[in-house]
Each structure stands twice: as structure tokens, then as C-alpha cells.
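@channel sequence for tomorrow's demo:
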Amino acid sequence: MRGELRPALPSRRQVLLTGAVMAASAITATQTATGDGYGSGGLGPWRDLDRSISPDEQVRRVVESDGVVMFGDSIAVQDGDPLAWTLAMRTGDALAMHNWSGQPSSAVVDALGRWSREFGLPRRILMATGSNDIFAPPVFGRQVDRAMRIVGWTRTVIWVNVHVDRVKLSPTVREADRRNTAWVNQQLEARARRFPNLRVVHWAEYLAADPARVRNLRDGVHTSVPQGQIARNRLIVDALAAAKTTPPRPQTR
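C-alpha cells (generated this afternoon):
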């Protein structure tokens, strides 16, 4: 990549990660399986959890260079810097991140809207969110719709689908997690059929294709390091690279 932007360097963090992020879950410890109506519990407080947000200057340079902007939850907080390195090595693109542990997709899309207004958006937007929506699955599809309205028809959204099966919880809660995960992913697939510029990274299907791949997760949600992290980031970079060379299809009505 030309110009002053140096895509081989990871984005600088406003908030540095500590060992706590490895223990932090996309599904916080305060959540229970009662009283929610969907069986997985309720979304706990998340605003004080770990985050990884690129500084404004980095975001502007990424947008100007037509790199990639990423919005995600705690999986993205953990995996974001290795993803930035992998993307730079594969395609030469730089990555700007707005990743925040524990946040639902409504907050993620709010952040997407703010960046769109403040900085504009490049041609590729990576959404790594949905795991925290298992607590209220019906609202997820509306958040995808919101994101696609913000992005418009000339940009490509790459959205990673989800896998939640919290192995330390009861069989009843795990069953609900799997059911709600499928619900979230079905809504994403339905939107991908509606929006030609929405492309899904099938992380859940990758894990399901081989029982041995459960080792790619350390808790039923977050990737193991480095094995799961490498596998997931490879799928994401494959999708970003393909989107770079294949523009969105024309809108159909």
C-alpha cells in the first residue's frame, strides 16, 4: 500500500488489553438462565469491560486508503490485532477497530453509525458481532437491517456468524444457547439473501463440519489461542480478500 499509511502495523489501542480480556466473556458472568424467555439468560453489564478502539487518526487514514473497518465484541477484542497483521500480510490493507467486550449488536451498529458520520466508511466493513444477541434473538435481524441502511449499496459488509455453546453451564442452558445461536444465524442468512452486498463468514459451519474443531474454542464461545484464532482469522481474511476483488452486485428489487 502506498502513501503514509503503514498497513503492516496493527492499529494502536486507546485502551490496552490486560490478562482480564482472556477471562472476560462475550457472555458475562452475571448472566443467568432465568426470567428471559429464551433460556440463555440476560445480557449483563458490559460498558466497563475491555475494549480495543483505534484512535481517530488511524480511522481516518484507513478510510482514506480504502482499508477495512471492524466492529465487534470480545472475540474481536482478543483476535483483532492478529487479524490486522494477517490482513496486512495477505492484502496490504490496514484495519481500524471498534471492538468492545460484551456489547450487543445494537451498540455495535450505533458505533458503525457514529464512524460513518464522523469519518465516512471504506468499501469493506467487517462486522464480528452477534454472540451477545442470543439473549434476545428476535432483535438481531433489525440490527443487521440498520447496519445495511448505514452502509448503503455500494459497500460490502462481511459479517461473521456466531457459535455459542457455553460448556461450563447446565445442559438446559447449553441447549438454549445452541437454539438461540441458530436463530441469530438464520436471521443473518435471510438478510444475506436480501442484501447482495452482505457476505457471511460461516464460522459456525466451519466448527460443525468437524467435531475435532471444538478445540478451536476455549469455552464454547471464544477462540483458543493460537489455533482457533488463526482458523477464524483465516476465514475472515479470505472473505475480505474476495470482497476486495469482487464489488457488490447491483441492487435488485
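heads up for whoever presents: The first strand starts at residue 51 and ends at 53.
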